[in-house]
Amino acid sequence: MVLLQSKSLPLGLTCPEFALPSVIDDGVYSLKDYAQAKALLVAFICNHCPYVRAIEDRLIGLRKSFDSEQLAMVGICSNDAVRYPDDGKENLKKRWYEKNYGFPYLVDAEQTVARDFLAVCTPEFFLFDQKRKLFYHGQLDDNWQHEAAVKHHHLEEAIEAIIEGKVPPSHQQPSMGCSIKWK
């Protein structure tokens, strides 16, 4: 398992378009489905990654701490499900129900959306403001291993900054995790 850091991206990039199937229903979700929320969080996650599993409950809690007018959130799994069956649609669906995610979980089977976002690892977070410009691209908090040791909630603070009409955080600590499992 290789630990990677997300690429540094310039703030202000426009959110790439996407239209992906959900693991839960027969729906296809796209960028326009989230137009009303002040902030949009796109999280590249998966089932098998220990880094995702370590922060999973915190991510679910983060979503629940904001109403849908403040924060829209979507999870995307872009891993090769043939080589990594834990990341196949049925296993993603099972995990979604086990953990009660509370946000759409989409499958990027062709991996085009991950490439459009320039995503490289799981978990990797892209937070966009209401104009869908990149506001924050970094880690959830400052301790992926031990929730009790967290001192800075970087992603939550960035969401609050959008809601309060503030400028993006000047420091954007990269996400860290497993590489996306490319075909």
Estimate the global geometry from the Cα principal axes: globular
Strand order of the largest sheet: 6-5-4-8-9
Please write the string of helix (H) and strand (E) elements: EEEEHEHEHEEEHE
Measure the end-to-end span.
Answer: 16 Å
Q: The CATH topology is what?
A: Glutaredoxin
Report strand %: 15-25%
Number of helical segments? 4
Q: Which range best describes the helical content: under 10%, 10-25%, 25-40%, 40-55%, 55-70% or over 70%?
A: 10-25%
| CATH C-level label | Alpha Beta
Query: Quick check: average pLDDT?
Result: 94
* Number of DSSP-assigned strands: 10
Tell me about this structure.
Helix content is about 25%, strand content about 20%. It has a five-stranded mixed beta sheet with strand order 6-5-4-8-9. The chain has a single domain, classed as Glutaredoxin (3-Layer(aba) Sandwich), CATH 3.40.30. The protein is built from four helices and ten strands. The mean pLDDT is about 95. The two termini are about 15 Å apart. With about 180 residues, it is of the alpha+beta class.
